[in-house]
Write a structure and sequence with these properties.
The protein is built from no helices and 28 strands. With 410 residues, it is an all-beta fold. 0% of the residues lie in helices and 46% in strands. Strands 1-28-27-26 form a 4-stranded antiparallel β-sheet, with no helix packed on it. Strands 2-3-4-5 form a 4-stranded antiparallel β-sheet, with no helix packed on it. It has a domain of 283 residues: Neuraminidase, CATH 2.120.10.30.
């Protein structure tokens, strides 16, 4: 649902933290962030968070579906040097799904405007970048059918790579690559954009780019809109052609439970690809990871068969994102919901897929944060920490944008 805010005032919300630990261990909230480990910003209107980003300085950005972006300082205070009082308002008629920081500190947002793909770039100050697009800091791209940009990342030479879907009833994976000035990069698939069918009704939710410029997308794939869904992965050469050294045709799928939806992807230094998302089993929603080798086969050195379902408690667990630490450990984050109660849920896995018992309690962290959060992504933060972005219950029935920072070690 599209939510657009034209003006707003940031106020740090005092929220009740969990009990302060006697010592700081991996998985604990970082009390140097807002004093409690978590902060939120009160902005007029209902804000539904969609993504989080962290600058090298430790500043934290959280974006809403309506395109509103808030920035917090490394200590959790609102960054009054960003936008207006720490807030940049969204553009009317635009829905945002993802964001990424480029090497210069510019913020790139991706989504849709009507039936077109929409990409916007903001300067570190929060102002639209006049050198991107037609001078207003944004571009739209038309396809033969309606298109949505669901994931965005920055590749070599500052190229912007967006992935999502094109088509409605029978959608296909879509990838577009842009030059630094916002023009489509015609060195990618001849015209800067490509659409690919995996099983027939497919879409991408996230995108990663390898050091050599190869593009990997992950999402969901099904034979039809009523068929069982699987994790879907596609790898492209830097020129936008399918990389047929990956699984024979450039495409791979795996299903856990009765259906699986991929939401996040990362590429490991050895070229292995990790996909995370939700899987459905016995009318329950939990999350799962899968790891593919560089050749596109399930990696049996990960959890024995390359597939790793994770469950916790009663209710549902909704996957939101994954990061890789320098040690090779993986930290996944999402939302645990039991009836009306919601909490942030994190799990750390060792490189072989075993849950790391040294993180939180038996490898898992559950934080209620006092405001019924819904996790909207996770990013690494300086000094061995991770940050999650969230939608939190607002001062009325509206939702606000929030973030929490956790200690994570290496």
């Amino acid at each position: 649902m599209r939510r657009v805010v034209r003006a707003g005032v940031v106020t740090l919300v005092a929220v009740v933290a969990t009990a302060i630990p006697a010592r700081a261990d991996p998985g604990d909230l970082d009390l140097h962030f807002g004093g409690t480990g978590h902060v939120s910003a009160v902005i007029a209107g209902n804000q539904d968070g969609v993504d989080v980003a962290v600058r090298p300085s430790g500043r934290v950005l959280v974006a809403s579906g309506g395109g509103t972006v808030v920035q917090f300082l490394a200590n959790g205070d609102p960054d009054t040097g960003f936008g207006s009082g720490g807030v940049v308002a969204g553009t009317p008629g635009v829905e945002i799904y993802a964001m990424a920081l480029d090497p210069l500190g510019n913020l790139v947002l991706a989504g849709d405007m009507g039936t077109d793909l929409f990409v916007e770039r903001l300067l570190p100050s929060g102002d639209p970048d006049p050198d991107f697009g037609g001078g207003d800091g944004s571009v739209t791209t038309s396809f033969s059918e309606a298109a949505i940009g669901a994931g965005v990342t920055i590749g070599p030479h500052g190229r912007i790579v967006v992935a999502g879907l094109v088509g409605i009833s029978q959608s296909r994976v879509m990838v577009a690559r842009y030059l630094d000035n916002g023009d489509l990069d015609h060195a990618f698939s001849d015209d800067g954009k490509v659409a690919t069918a995996i099983l027939g009704d497919d879409h991408a939710e996230d995108v990663a780019v390898a050091d050599d410029g190869s593009v990997v997308i992950a999402g969901s794939a099904a034979a039809s809109d009523t068929g069982p869904r699987s994790f879907g992965v596609v790898r492209y050469h830097p020129n936008g052609r399918l990389d047929r050294t990956f699984s024979g045709d450039g495409k791979a799928t795996v299903r856990m439970g009765t259906a699986s939806d991929g939401f996040a992807v990362l590429i490991q230094p050895n070229g292995a690809i990790v996909v995370g998302g939700n899987y459905f089993h016995q009318d329950v929603i939990d999350w799962a990871l899968a790891r593919f080798t560089h050749a596109g086969k399930l990696d049996h050195s990960f959890s024995g068969d390359g597939k790793l379902p994770t469950t916790y408690g009663f209710g549902a667990n909704f996957f939101a994102g994954i990061v890789r630490q320098g040690s090779g450990d993986l930290i996944a984050a999402g939302t645990h919901q039991d009836a009306e109660a919601r909490s942030v849920f994190l799990v750390r896995y060792l490189p072989n897929g075993t849950i790391d018992s040294g993180f939180g309690i038996a490898g898992k962290v559950v934080e209620h944060l006092g405001d019924h959060p819904s996790c909207r992504g996770i990013e690494r933060s300086p000094h061995g920490k991770v940050v999650i972005g969230a939608t939190v219950d607002g001062v009325s029935s509206d939702g606000d944008l929030g973030a929490a920072r956790f200690l994570a070690g290496a």
